[in-house]
Amino acid sequence: MTFALDTAAPNAEAPPANALTVEGLTTSIRIAGRWFDAVRDVSFTVGPRETLALVGESGCGKSLTALSIMGLLPAAVGRVSAGRIVVDGVDMTAADEPAREAMRGDRIGMIFQEPMTSLNPVLPIGFQIAESLIQHRGLSKRDARKRVVELMELVRIPAAEERLDAYPHQFSGGMRQRVMIAMALACSPRVLIADEPTTALDVTIQAQVLALLADLQKQVGLAVLLITHNLGVVASVADRVMVMYGGDVVESAPMRSFFKAPTHPYSEALLNAMPRVDRATALAPIPGQVPTLPDMPAGCRFQSRCPLRVDKCAERPPLVPMASDPAHAVRCWVRAGA
Amino acid sequence: MSDVAAPAPVSLAAPSAWRRATRSGGLALGLVLVVVLILVAALAKWVAPYDPDAQDVMMVLEGPASAHWFGTDAFGRDVLSRVIWGARISLFVGFVATLAGVVFGTVVGVISGYYGGKIDKAITAATDVLLSFPQLIMGLMLVAVLGPSLRNLILAIAITAIPAFIRVARGSTLAMKERDFVDACRALGYGDLRIMFLHILPNIMDEVVVMASLWLATAIRTESTLAFIGLGVPPPTATWGGIVREGFDNLLDGWWLSVFPSLAILLVMIALNLIGDGLRDATDPRAPQ
After folding, report:
1. Which spans are transmembrane here (chain B) (predicted)?
2. Which of A4, A129, B67, B263 sits at a 20 to 30 Å CA gap from A255?
3. CA B178, B182, B184 angle in degrees (round to 5)?
4. What is the DSSP annotation of B207-250?
């Protein structure tokens, strides 16, 4: 038996082509009393059934981008200082907090890295999945419960009915991540942000969860923004790839052309640092480390670690499409001409 | 064929909190004592052998005997019956005042810890001021200002309990709000109220309950102390502290007057502390197994 989620777009008159549009997003964070741009001028769109992978190492701004989209930046230390974020036709940057609250969990869902700690340990699973239905859709407890069983079957939790009243500690990591997915999808959102959804799981479970996400995405027409540092995961599920470094998008490309021809020196270095079975050469680590925000060089932020550095790198390169493939854009003075 | 018996199945599951709590027997013993005391107090009308206020001039200051197990006081009233009736007031004041202190203190503490910032600073400062008074002095001042009556006594003791619960709830909330599941709640669009009282509160209840069981003892002791110094429920209503005080005037003629109500107070203190310690051991993962 297959179960289809409610796929009708909430605003049927003019369904926006893109479920998620981010234009010129700049997010600042406060360090020792000063504001620094930790995400600079990031733009992208994700359409229904599409998966955009946001790739980069820790601190590159990928999680901050996600928090900005969700409107969950801690106000004391983070703010969206420029740009527009449109989720399912609603401008999140212009909306007030109650409006954003109504969007979260309803039209846009998020799953997190740590399934072991992202569930409330003292509340039963069934209630936790039902809660957003009760909150956003005003379902009665009994109706919500019925829907919860359907959702648990949808994410392939066996013996769903018996497990409604089980607590998180009775579930394994993989099962908990399925519960998180069920929670995020309960209200049939149009956009799902998956922040390192499989990083904390065993490799075999990773594959299961990724396959599940891909399946659900096709069924429901979900737009997925996948945040990860695992290029293996990117290769298996992404349609498009965006590489971030120091808050800048340094390369944006369709998945295949990215893996075939990584163009930015940082992307290249990332791929060379990844173990591959078809290559006998030693892994090449990227020398040095990401400068902290106060120490970021002016111009290209990768210049301090870049083997191709030229004088022009002191100026910030633009993100330009490549002549050979307009879908493939890169932010590099040296490589952009190619 | 070997006839070695199959090894007994080994339970790999951690012993349940209840098993850990009751292993030493303290929690169970404390619970039994408290339940018995509550039953005796609730059924005082049937359990007490005499009317606690009935005077008998023929039986003044009689020592413990089969007719009067705990003896009689200067008015010929049966001390056992007075202790039983006194339990009603002492336990009632203790429970109600603690409950009020727990509810109010916990709510304020969760709000303070959750929001942080100026709200938290103000609440913490007020809490620190209240906590700087010894708890008994605080209760004494409040009763002196409000005047001794059952309601004011409960109010005063509740107020002395509030800052302790604010502090415990605030501290636990501070730790809890950094947990991933709180972020997950925000990502699901839940409001602050829902997150505070549906998600954080159940997670900090273990500490609040342990604290409450210990505070119950403090509240009952405070009530007795206030009654002893004459700021309790006015006579002739029997309360434990009041009976001890009345007995004091004739202590040289009748030791039983003060000793038996004191033993009753002692018994409750021991029982509640056993419960508190047992609960703490059951909920504290660092406690020795």
Report:
1. 27-48, 89-117, 129-147, 153-169, 196-217, 255-276
2. A4
3. 125
4. HHHHHHHHHHHHHHHHHHHHHHTT-SSPTTS--HHHHHHHHHTT
ipTM: 0.81
Task: Using CA coordinates, name the residue in chain B closest to A192.
Answer: B187
Nearest of A183, A176, A178, A184 to residue A210 by alpha carbon: A178
Domains located in chain A, CATH noted: 20-238 (3.40.50.300), 245-336 (no CATH)
Which CATH number belongs to the domain containing residue B220 in this structure? 1.10.3720.10
Looking at the complex, does the CB of residue A191 fall below 8 Å from at least one CB of chain B? Answer: no
pLDDT digits (tens, 9 = 90+) for A262-301: 889 999 888 888 877 777 777 888 888 888 888 888 888 8
Q: How many domains does chain B have?
A: 1
- Region of residue B145 (phi > 0: left; psi between -120 and 50: alpha; otherwise: beta): alpha
Strand order in the sheet with A78-87: A34-46, A20-31, A78-87, A90-91
**What is the structure's pLDDT at B5?**
53
**Of A317 and A283, more confident:** A317
Domain holding B100, by residue range, is 46-283
DSSP assigned state of A293:
G
Residue B72, domain member (yes or no): yes
Q: Phi-psi region for residue A106, left (φ > 0), alpha (ψ -120 to 50) or beta?
A: alpha
**Percentages of chain B per state (helix, strand, coil), in multiples of 5:** 70, 0, 30
Residue B71 within a domain: yes
CB B90 within 8 A of CB B157: no
Query: What's the token pair of residue B79?
Result: 């001390």
B178, B183, B197: which to substitute to probe chain A, counting the most A Cβ within 10 Å? Answer: B183
Closest A-chain CA to B187: A104
Decide if A215 contacts A156 (C-beta within 8 A).
no
CA A87 from centroid of its chain's CA atoms? 14
Average pLDDT over residues A223-244: 91
Confidence of residue B260 (pLDDT cuts 50, 70, 90): confident
Q: Quick one: A123 exposed, middle or buried, by C-beta within 10 A (0-12, 13-18, 19+)?
A: middle
Residue B184 with chain A: CB contacts under 8 Å: 110, 112, 118-119, 180, 183
Beta bridge partners of A31: A34
Give the pLDDT confidence score for residue B235 in this predicted structure: 74
In DSSP terms, which residues pair with A245 in a beta bridge?
A248
- Residue A117 touches partner B, C-beta closer than 8 Å: yes
Q: Are strands A51-55 and A34-46 parallel, antiparallel or unpaired?
A: unpaired
DSSP characters over B82-143: HHHHHHHHHHHHHHHHHHHHHHHHHHHHHHHHHH-HHHHHHHHHHHHHHHHS-HHHHHHHHH
Q: Does pLDDT of B50 surpass 70?
A: yes
Query: Does B18 reside within a domain?
Result: no
A337 vs A29, residue with greater confidence: A29
B194 to chain A, any CB pair closer than 8 A? The answer is yes
Residue B34 lies in a domain: no
Q: Which of B179, B187, B202 lies nearest to residue A117, judging by beta carbons?
A: B179
